[in-house]
């Protein structure tokens, strides 16, 4: 007898799912009961947030849906941050959640939560299954919606009685919903207008975003940029979409963008966003963004166009199709003065740091990771200073090689995401760059990497602070370090650790011991000359490794555009 | 601030209203009036909303609504040729001596007296927003006990659906 639980499994298999992340519980037992017979590898996360980030990491590394399976109530609510993270970055995650039996819904039953209500604002779409006959259709739609148009997370809430009910309703051949028709094919006239604008521009810039990566259009983008001879700036999410080493590449734009990218955006007469949504971290003060420029925007999401910046040349459609058409339409134009200008900015203001320092600096560690991996690893990050240094000092040349929580900025994303990435790409070295703040948010998932023999390398840049917050307090709050010290020294009175509480050392917890307690290899690095050997050893270890690097405490990320300022008002630090 | 009339055809399914309302309120926009009812296709409902805001804000609202899987079609009728109507029910404290005056005023606006009691009257008026507001203004001399407005419903002119 085929039950709702069988239909869920069949739906996963039909969607090509081979990998599943999750955590069981009372209201999802019937689905778990069927799992051992299915050809699906199951990763037992230790927290449902971890399961959601693992699915997200898997999705970002492959472009295919990443799937997590959790129970009702707290199981489902624990996925909310993971779903919101995927939602902001357009990552195709499918979350299957158990729910209390239909007659109990609304009764405040044990482990009941209004899961569709709670997740409505953080998913692309969600379903509460009310009739088992709807389940085959809903499973098909969930994967279709998650992976098409602008990708995003979909949650399916399956009450326990639905899982148990027999049903022989067949799966539909495909999705047919009158309210969901992604507008893939761009209008030819819009392409023509954009191409003419590019040809007419004297100082054009392309702004490449995560859409080029999720749309698998990196090759098309590079072809257009090279043919049109237009310099390229990238969002954080766009890193890897266009080779950072290319002559036309000016690096990252925005709050922590390069001088060249931010000056180019400020001076250009045309900026064309390709799969980037003019996020506030990209534009700086929006009224001053690219003030002399006409704006073009290619996006699959019509609501992204004109949302924050008025757009003169909109193109709605799949970025791959749009770029193919644009490649036909654009003409090569020589702009020697403009290219010389941006090249000069690029040459004169490279990203840099205090290279003469004898101290261990976080940027140095990242450069060493790049050297040891020859720039060929998949880099995953958490959120904060280390994330920006990872964006600055690792050369990304391929799409899906830089996996980071850009939109929501979720600390704790990194470790579970790295597990999802490695589960999908076992052939590739995966290095997580994290901080001592972020890593503590989901450290428990390290055991999953150990259990599944996923030899990820976790590099913790330990500066004893919630570093990015500390940097803001230093620069914008008169160095009032409130609530940011992770070590015990120099804390304010209201957060002081009494001397009677003896910590093991200046840094707590002991990440080396913590790694070992989880079955991973732990190493601690305190000097520059120890970094490369430790990384070589870690990458060759064949098992999960944590490399804790004790770095300079009060190092800052530069350049920085202060909040509310224009992109050309950046603070350069050392540059 | 200009008031926009947004009309949406949506799947007639549970939870769709919450999706639409949640999307609008979640982005900090205010819904002034809202009306939902079935259409001649029983699987489709029509929602009509009045949302104050400038054109750019409302363009965002309509595009965001259009992204919802359960929203089949969404239109901003504000500058389109359309008819829009609202229904008003008012309960007034009315002495016997006031009944005739209230009835006359109501009839002058094309409304109807739905109930007359010794101490109160209930009247109904259907009209566009201006008529409704004018009528309420003219009722000021009387004591209003209760008021219920349907919110605007609207339909585009012309020969297309």
Question: How would you characterize the overall build of this protein?
Answer:
The complex is a heterodimer of chains A (about 575) and B (about 160). With about 575 residues, chain A is α/β, with parallel strands linked by helices. Chain A has 3 domains: about 5-165, Rossmann fold (3-Layer(aba) Sandwich), CATH 3.40.50; about 190-350, 3-Layer(aba) Sandwich (Rossmann fold), CATH 3.40.50.1220; about 360-550, Rossmann fold (3-Layer(aba) Sandwich). Chain A has 22 helices and 18 strands. In chain A, the strands form 3 sheets. Chain A has a 6-stranded parallel β-sheet with strand order 2-1-3-4-6-5, sandwiched between helices. In chain A, helix 19 (about 445-450) links the parallel strand 15 and strand 16 (about 455-460). The longest helix of chain A has 15 residues, at about 50-60. The relative contact order of chain A is 0.11. Chain B has about 160 residues and is of the alpha+beta class. Chain B is elongated and about 55 Å long. The two termini of chain B are about 30 Å apart. The mean pLDDT of chain B is about 95. In chain B, the strands form 2 sheets. In chain B, strands 5, 6, 7, 8 and 9 form a 5-stranded antiparallel β-sheet that branches. In chain B, about 30% of the residues lie in helices and about 40% in strands. In chain B, a hairpin with a 5-residue loop joins strand 2 and strand 3. Chain B has 2 domains: about 5-80, ACT domain (Alpha-Beta Plaits, 2-Layer Sandwich), CATH 3.30.70.260; about 85-155, Alpha-Beta Plaits, CATH 3.30.70.1150. The longest helix of chain B has 13 residues, at about 55-65. Chains A and B meet through loops of A and helix 1 and helix 2 of B.
């Amino acid at each position: 007898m085929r039950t709702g639980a069988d239909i869920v499994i069949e739906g996963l298999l039909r969607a090509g799912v081979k990998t599943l992340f999750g955590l069981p519980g009372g209201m999802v037992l019937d689905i778990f009961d069927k799992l051992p017979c299915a050809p699906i590898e199951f990763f037992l996360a230790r927290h449902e947030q971890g399961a959601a980030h693992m699915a997200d990491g898997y999705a970002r590394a492959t472009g295919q849906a990443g799937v997590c399976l959790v129970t009702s109530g707290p199981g489902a609510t624990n996925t909310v941050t993971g779903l919101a993270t995927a939602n902001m970055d357009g990552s195709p995650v499918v979350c299957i959640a158990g729910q209390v039996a239909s007659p109990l819904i609304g009764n405040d039953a044990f482990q009941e939560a209004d899961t569709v209500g709670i997740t409505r604002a953080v998913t692309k779409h969600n379903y509460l299954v009310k009739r088992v006959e709807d389940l085959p259709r809903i499973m098909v739609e969930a994967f279709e919606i998650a992976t098409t148009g602008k990708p995003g997370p979909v949650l399916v809430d399956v009450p326990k009685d639905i899982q148990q009910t027999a049903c022989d309703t067949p799966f539909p051949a495909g999705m047919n919903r009158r309210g969901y028709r992604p507008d893939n094919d761009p209008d030819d006239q819009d392409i023509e207008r954009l191409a003419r604008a590019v040809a007419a521009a004297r100082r054009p810039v392309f702004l490449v975003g995560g859409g080029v990566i999720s749309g698998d259009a990196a090759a098309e983008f590079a072809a257009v940029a090279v043919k049109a001879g237009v310099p390229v700036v990238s969002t954080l999410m766009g890193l890897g979409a266009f080779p950072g080493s290319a002559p036309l590449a000016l690096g990252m734009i925005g709050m922590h963008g390069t001088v060249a990218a931010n000056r180019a955006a400020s001076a250009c007469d045309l900026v064309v966003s390709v799969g980037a949504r003019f996020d506030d971290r990209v534009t700086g003060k929006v009224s001053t963004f690219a003030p002399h420029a006409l704006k073009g925007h290619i996006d699959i999401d019509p609501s992204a166009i004109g949302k924050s910046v008025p757009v003169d040349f909109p193109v709605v459609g799949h970025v791959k199709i749009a770029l193919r058409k644009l490649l036909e339409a654009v003409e090569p134009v020589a702009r020697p003065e403009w290219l010389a200008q941006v090249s000069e900015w690029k040459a004169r203001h490279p990203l840099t740091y205090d290279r003469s320092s004898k101290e261990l600096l976080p940027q140095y560690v990242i450069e060493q990771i790049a050297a040891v991996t020859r720039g060929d690893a998949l880099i995953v990050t958490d959120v904060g200073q280390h994330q920006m240094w990872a964006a600055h000092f690792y050369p990304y040349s391929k799409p899906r090689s830089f996996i980071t929580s850009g939109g929501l900025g979720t600390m704790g994303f990194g470790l579970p995401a790295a597990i999802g990435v490695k589960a999908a790409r076992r052939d590739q070295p995966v290095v997580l760059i994290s901080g001592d703040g972020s890593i503590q948010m989901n450290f428990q998932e390290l055991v999953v990497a150990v259990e599944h023999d996923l030899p990820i390398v976790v590099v913790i840049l330990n500066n004893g602070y919630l570093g990015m917050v500390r940097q803001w307090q230093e620069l914008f709050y008169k160095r009032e370090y409130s609530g940011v010290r992770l070590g015990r020294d120099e804390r304010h009175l209201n957060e002081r650790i009494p001397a009677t509480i003896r910590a093991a050392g200046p840094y707590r917890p002991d990440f080396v011991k913590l790694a070992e307690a989880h079955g991973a290899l732990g190493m601690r690095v305190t000097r520059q000359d120890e970094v490369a050997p430790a990384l070589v050893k870690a990458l060759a270890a064949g098992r999960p490794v944590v490399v804790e690097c004790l770095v300079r405490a009060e190092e800052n990320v530069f350049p920085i555009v202060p909040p509310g300022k224009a992109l050309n008002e950046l603070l350069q630090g050392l540059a | 601030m200009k008031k926009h009339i947004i009309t949406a055809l949506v799947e007639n399914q549970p939870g769709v209203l919450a999706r639409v309302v949640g999307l609008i309120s979640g982005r900090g926009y205010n819904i002034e009036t809202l009306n939902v009812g079935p259409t001649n296709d029983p699987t489709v409902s029509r929602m009509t909303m009045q949302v104050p805001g400038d054109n750019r804000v409302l363009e965002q609202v309509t595009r965001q609504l259009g992204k919802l899987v359960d929203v089949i079609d969404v239109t901003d009728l504000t500058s389109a040729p359309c008819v829009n109507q609202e229904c008003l029910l008012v309960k007034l404290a009315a002495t016997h001596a006031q009944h005739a005056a209230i009835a006359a005023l109501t009839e002058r606006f094309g409304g109807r007296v739905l109930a007359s009691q010794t101490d109160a009257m209930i009247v109904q008026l259907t009209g566009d927003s201006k008529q409704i507001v004018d009528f309420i203004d003219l009722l000021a001399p009387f004591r209003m006990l209760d008021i219920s407005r349907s919110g605007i419903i609207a339909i585009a002119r012309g020969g297309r659906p």
